[in-house]
Amino acid sequence: MAEKSNILSDLNDRSREVFRRVVESYLSSGDPVGSRTLTRSMTERLSAATIRNVMQDLEFLGLLDSPHVSAGRIPTQQGLRLFVDSLLEVGSVAAEDREIMDAALTSGEKDVTSLLDHVSATLSAITNGASLVLSPKQDAVIRHIEFVGLAADRALVVLVFSNGHVENRMITPPIGQTPASMREAANFLNAIAEGKTLSELRRSIGQEIASRRQEIDSLARELVESGLAIWQTKGDEPERLIVRGRGNLLADTHETQDIDRIRRLFDDLERKRDIAEFLDLAESGEGVRIFIGSENKLFSLSGSSLVVSPYMNADRQIIGAVGVIGPTRLNYGRIVPIVDYTAQLVGKLLSERGRG
């Protein structure tokens, strides 16, 4: 950070203004910025030749680059980082964006995964980027378990967690189950599940059935064992990284190299690789963090930028993250407060559900 600050302090007012206007124009249009364009916006009246000389100096410092001969300049990754750290003006969330996000979070969705999916879709829509929402790991304490018979060969297990998450899992019940045996099985599980997470209940269920065999009849016991067997062999836990708005990344993309970059990003998102590292990115700093290009270790091959913020539960523990990913010319000044606001809302809502 000190080195970046030194670079900025070494620039005179003219060079600093040229640099700032090149970056702001690039973030707005995505196009290289020429000297003649800047002659119309500079505070000081300067010739195009003078501005070109300043641009060359900034290029020598590694802050600007020339993608094509005589095609103007664009900021380098180093230049964008300097701008974001030192010159970026972050405003508050626009009233319209705030209303849209508030509506998404009060949509009445009872299932946390459905709610976060709705939040992710809304975040993508208002930022015109791809949104990433990492949902909490389901290691919360179980609040309630219920069996719902659907047909002779189908039943639903409803799991309600203390953090507000509701999960429905389909099982094939043993033959002969009745509404009474399902109630008995649920009552038995609720009695021994108090204060336990699902993984803890899985580990203790066999011993509990053996020691309390007289408290539960054979039909209910078979249902409990059948349900837990299904839960244990379910495979991967429900999708934790929710990605929406991939199509936004293709908008205004015409260059072959840009399309290839987006395809690499899509591949990374489809594989949902390194989900734990995604949370690490958010956990390693307070509030919103910005990763530009190759700084973003998850999606570095695509040269994308990531704006990410963690959200916390009522105990101030980080349990998930919210982010927006897109090209390096993201509108950082607008997206940073939106991501921050969304993360705070999600944390507050999940904390309230957990106390409910």
Automatic annotation (TrEMBL):
Entry keyword set: Repressor, Stress response, Transcription, Transcription regulation
Tree of life domain: Bacteria
Sample GO molecular function, one term: DNA binding
Residue ranges constituting the Heat-inducible transcription repressor HrcA C-terminal domain according to the UniProt record: 114-336
Keyword Repressor: yes
SUPFAM superfamilies: GAF domain-like, Winged helix' DNA-binding domain
GO BP of this protein: negative regulation of DNA-templated transcription
PANTHER family: HEAT-INDUCIBLE TRANSCRIPTION REPRESSOR HRCA
Sequence similarity: Belongs to the HrcA family.
Reported function: Negative regulator of class I heat shock genes (grpE-dnaK-dnaJ and groELS operons). Prevents heat-shock induction of these operons.
Name of this protein: Heat-inducible transcription repressor HrcA
